[in-house]
């Protein structure tokens, strides 16, 4: 593994098994998180984005199980296979929340309504570092101040309900940054906020990244946000990454019919004003009864008989990869 790699997900397979029902929530997913870079996982609801990151942090719901693949985290030059160690053992606890921080969609998830904001950030610092209460209080003030909470000295005595959504999310980010994580997982962190606040939070995350060199795994269904945030994008559909590449490659020259349809179906900053939005025809298949071949084929205008077999991943040059038979020849030409 090169010295820029922090986390490697290889052929990850995660399922929900309940009696006879098996949901293949994540299927053969691979990607690499590089130091100081942002990877965006993008796709519609139910495409497997959250299950992928919950597999990394080993925080799957009770019926969820990793049934294949490897998730390797590189800590101080040493490879740790996260899905081979105990979920709640010492090593995982030393990584989750510390090496790998999390920012959730709903900041209330990381805040307890009955304690003051200051108290919670301080407790979190004490949990991560050997510091006195006084030092923790100073650090809490410093972090909250640097994240743009106004009048910090008085506001730390307030409770979460006295904070606006945007301010709560700043505190959520503060909580996730306390242990100086190497990777931040942000699962739709701005979805609950209005547009101007969204932009402020995104800028804040970029500033943090610039200052600390943090890597980010950014999950969103919003292509505008992913264009703004990510260096590389993995487009997910029904548990698989169907297209992967640098943000510019994927957004300006999409190669998978699903990515193309997704780009035509949502407005995003910078899109051609004349372009008309289209809806993607048909519905997503039942996740408990996925077709054998390409899962997008039933909705795809280019589908042929070849699509009854799941496509290989074709490499189109410059790191751009796509799982679609349409590109078989292109790869062969590139040789
Ligand atoms: N606790 C669960 N029990 C059973 N199936 C689940 C559970 N959680 C997720 N799934 C299934 O796993 C698949 C992937 O879901 P996931 O939440 O990862 O999608 P997502 O892309 O993150 O969507 P969203 O944006 O809505 O969170 C879906 O088919 C979903 O129904």
TrEMBL record:
Compartment(s): Cell membrane
GO cellular component terms, A-Z: plasma membrane
SMART domains on file: AAA
Membrane-related topology note: Peripheral membrane protein
Family annotation (CDD domains): ABC_NikE_OppD_transporters
One Gene Ontology biological process: peptide transport
Annotated keywords: ATP-binding, Cell membrane, Membrane, Nucleotide-binding, Transport
Pfam families documented for this protein: ABC_tran (PF00005), oligo_HPY (PF08352)
GO molecular function terms noted in the UniProt entry: ATP binding; ATP hydrolysis activity
Family according to the record: Belongs to the ABC transporter superfamily.
Identification of the protein by name: ABC transporter ATP-binding protein
